[in-house]
Amino acid sequence: MRVVKYNDIVKSIRDMIIYSTTHLAPDMLEALKKAYENEKSEVSKAVLKQLLENAEIAAENYKPLCQDTGLAIDFVKVGQDLRVEGGTL
Q1: What angle do CA 5, 69, 40 make, to 5 degrees?
Q2: For 11-49, how does the pLDDT look when each residue is reduced to its tens digit (9 = 90+)?
Q3: Do 32 and 45 meet the contact criterion of CB atoms below 8 Å apart?
Q4: Fewer CB under 10 Å: which end of the chain, C or N?
Q5: Helix/strand/coil (H, E, C) string of 19-45?
């Protein structure tokens, strides 16, 4: 039987949520940079620049990219050969 510590599960989920709300996916970040470089409109270019600056600040300071980062809902399947030690899911 495999034993997993409750605190390890909590830490992993916490770290995943913090990372996903503070870092853009690399392909998204590259797409924003490319859009900024190719944009002709000064207003649109300013908006893209602000998005890139916000992404940099969020990643450096581990602050959410925006105030509406959503709500995480996790579904966990636990088989009969697993025991969670120190807490319950």
Answers
A1: 135
A2: 999 999 889 889 999 999 999 999 999 999 999 999 999
A3: no
A4: N
A5: HHHHCCCHHHHHHHHHHHHHCCCHHHH
